[in-house]
Specification:
Layout lengths: L7 H11 L9 H14 L4 E2 L5 E6 L5 E6 L4 E7 L5 E6 L11 E5 L5 E8 L20 E5 L6 H6 L7 E4 L4 E2 L4 E4 L2 H18 L9 E6 L18 E5 L2 E2 L11 E7 L2 E2 L2 H13 L4 E5 L6 H7 L5 E9 L6 E4 H16 L2
Parallel strand pairs: 3-12, 3-13, 13-18, 14-18, 15-17
Antiparallel strand pairs: 1-2, 2-12, 4-5, 4-9, 6-7, 6-9, 7-8, 10-11, 11-19, 15-16, 15-18
Helix pairs in contact: 1-4, 4-7
């Protein structure tokens, strides 16, 4: 029987969360958003020193952590150039080629926010014959600030200095056919799925046959989101993150992906096998894949020394770390698999 979830809240909270700038290292607003959202749903939560959000949503016995991350890829000012423009450095796996001509917000240390755009140096095709063939790097692209500045001193006078955070527009779109297009579906789509789960538990639409924590991390994009702050009584961690789509993989936007192994090693065989069985029994669209260029907060927790069973699932996301695409059905299949896993004896 096909699973049909009420996705109105999930899609609403996704769009609102995507609108909150939260590149890794600059996640205070996303943390606050999540705390307030959980409070509105009727849950108390706590915030770790790193800004992760922890909430217990009910159940008893065999404590499980469901984790998604609030931080995204992004950029930071590495140099204010002599022409008043900005050389940037990446935060996480963002690449200039996927962000060229994208509008940005520059968060100055004085609290002001300025608009700008990432461009190739000397980008006009009427001036630069090599504009089309030039490989884009952080050395030959720059942020053009939408202010009348032409020197380093004029830009510094705005309060824009080295170390200021830069956030790229998301261009969030939901199509009538159910596709979700946006930057940062990795991993805000999973965060929205977990908030939808919390709502369904509170309303009695989803049951828990074990104790369940939700853990919304920061710093996942730089590898240490899950390395601290986890509840000590937990026995298992299930990371809900994006499923990879590409050549050689079976995942798609409409499926829930189950990762058997990533760049750091295999996930727990018994948990992964149980998830596959439940996906089959519930008639879900799913894929099992190996991700060669990937890690997760579940792997970070294991690397930090936590003695946990660990697994990874998530909705398929196309064009990861670029302008990403998923589908409502992929989110529904992911939610359905989580609910099936939590209700089993």
């Amino acid at each position: 029987m096909a699973y049909s979830a009420d996705t109105e809240y999930m899609l609403d909270v996704l769009k609102r969360l995507l609108a909150v700038d939260s590149p890794t290292g600059f996640t205070e607003k996303a943390t606050e958003f999540t705390v307030n959202e959980l409070k509105q749903l009727g849950y108390a939560s706590s915030v770790t020193r790193k800004g992760s959000v922890l909430a217990e949503i009910g159940g008893e016995g065999r404590p499980l952590i469901l984790t998604a991350h609030l931080d995204t890829i992004g950029a930071m000012v590495a140099q204010v150039k002599a022409n008043g423009r900005l050389k940037i450095t990446n935060l996480g796996g963002i690449r200039p080629v996927t962000c060229e001509t994208e509008n940005v917000r520059i968060y100055a240390r004085n609290g002001k926010v300025y608009d700008g755009c990432l461009q190739l140096n000397n980008p006009s095709v009427h001036v630069n014959r090599e504009a089309g063939s030039t490989e884009r790097t952080y050395d030959n692209t720059e942020i053009v600030i939408d202010e009348d500045v032409h020197t380093k001193e004029e830009t510094l006078a705005l309060g824009i200095t080295n170390g200021c955070f830069i956030c790229f527009d998301t261009r969030t779109v939901q199509t009538e056919s159910g596709y979700l297009k946006s930057r940062y579906l990795d991993d805000k789509l999973a965060a929205a799925i977990l908030l939808e789960l919390a709502k369904r538990v509170k309303e009695g639409k989803a049951s828990l046959n074990r104790k369940v924590y939700l853990f919304f991390t920061t710093y996942e994009e730089v590898g240490h989101g899950g390395k601290g702050g986890l509840p000590e009584d937990a026995e298992e961690i299930l990371a809900v993150d994006m499923g990879c789509i590409g050549e050689g993989l079976d995942g798609s936007e409409t499926k829930v992906s189950i990762c058997a192994k990533d760049a750091h090693g295999p996930y727990d065989h018994s948990v992964t096998s149980g998830l596959i069985r439940l996906a089959e029994e519930n008639g879900l669209q799913y894929a099992v894949d190996v991700y060669l260029n990937y890690s997760s907060d579940a792997q970070a927790a294991i690397a930090a020394g936590y003695d946990l069973k660990h697994a990874l699932i998530g909705p398929g996301v196309y064009a990861s770390h670029g302008y990403e695409r998923s589908h409502v059905r992929g989110a529904e299949n992911t939610l359905a698999l989580i609910e099936a896993y939590l209700k089993q004896e």
